[in-house]
Design brief:
The protein is of the alpha+beta class. Helices cover 35% and strands 19% of the residues. Helix 2 packs parallel to helix 4, helix 3 crosses helix 4 and helix 4 packs antiparallel against helix 5. The protein starts with 11 loop residues before the first helix and ends in a 9-residue tail after the last strand.
Length: 254
């Protein structure tokens, strides 16, 4: 699972899975769905920060460790659905404002209700929390080096690891074409929590396998041997939450 701060929680495919007419509506009405996804994420970030702040005041005496921040929040299924439905509500709200079409209003209201349902599930099940969050890795620098890897185009990704062995979300694959050589992979911008990293490579961006047997040191580069390991561990989706933090429904009094 990715961290909330790794990027957009949901994508176009998540929205179209819930509403097959979305692409057509967005095209006809000139709506930028990516912008709505970003705006929905901004709203959720504020609401999550408010939830965490409220929990901090209410339950402070019961927490033995530092209380979580937005950077600790892991994307769980109810959080993903909340973001998806909020973005769809925004799309149809925009479409209705433009055309005053009651069909769009009905869709807006439907997704507003669905967003509320997902939010309630999130409160009951709790926010997923990673106590040592590992942010998504940036694309590594991949360059040619001396060696005898078979000529061809390869795709390389990497992911950071923390002291507990928890792996963050992998980077977007980087492509390189080799000719009478191999490739040298150099990570960039290691997060403060990182104690090592894994490298994934393959001839297909959807078919990467881990190349290193044990974690590579943060300051160390990876020189690819003369063959690509296949059939090994594949890139994960990021950290699993260490715990679920229920959100109390409490009216705070001054």
């Amino acid at each position: 699972m990715a961290l909330f701060t790794d990027g957009l929680v949901s994508g176009m495919e998540d929205l179209t899975a819930q509403d097959t007419q979305l692409t057509n509506v967005a095209t006809v009405e000139g709506i930028d769905v990516t912008q709505k996804l970003a705006l929905a994420q901004e709203e959720l970030a504020l609401e999550i920060a408010t939830l965490l702040s409220g929990s901090r005041r209410v339950e402070e005496a019961f927490w033995l460790t530092a209380l979580p921040k937005i950077e600790n929040v892991v994307v769980t299924p109810p959080l993903k659905l909340w973001h998806t439905f909020r973005a769809l509500e925004m799309v149809y709200g925009d479409a209705y404002s433009s055309q005053l079409n009651h069909r769009y209003a009905a869709k807006r209201d439907q997704f507003h209700q669905r967003a509320g349902w997902a939010y309630e599930r999130l409160l009951v099940l709790g926010l997923g929390i990673a106590w040592s969050p590992v942010p998504r890795a940036r694309q590594p620098q991949v360059v040619s080096a001396a060696g005898s890897l078979a000529n061809g185009t390869y795709y390389v990704s990497m992911a950071w690891i923390n002291s507990k062995g928890e792996e963050g979300s992998p980077s977007v694959p980087t492509a390189i074409t080799t000719a009478t050589g191999t490739m040298l992979v150099q990570p960039s911008a290691p997060p403060s929590c990182a104690t090592g990293w894994n490298v994934y490579a393959g001839g297909d961006p959807e078919g990467l396998s881990r190349q290193n047997g044990s974690p590579i040191a943060v300051t160390q580069s990876w020189l690819q041997p003369n063959a690509i390991v296949t059939g090994g561990s594949v890139p994960g989706w990021g950290q699993e939450p260490n715990c679920r933090m229920p959100m109390p429904r409490v009216i705070l009094r001054g």
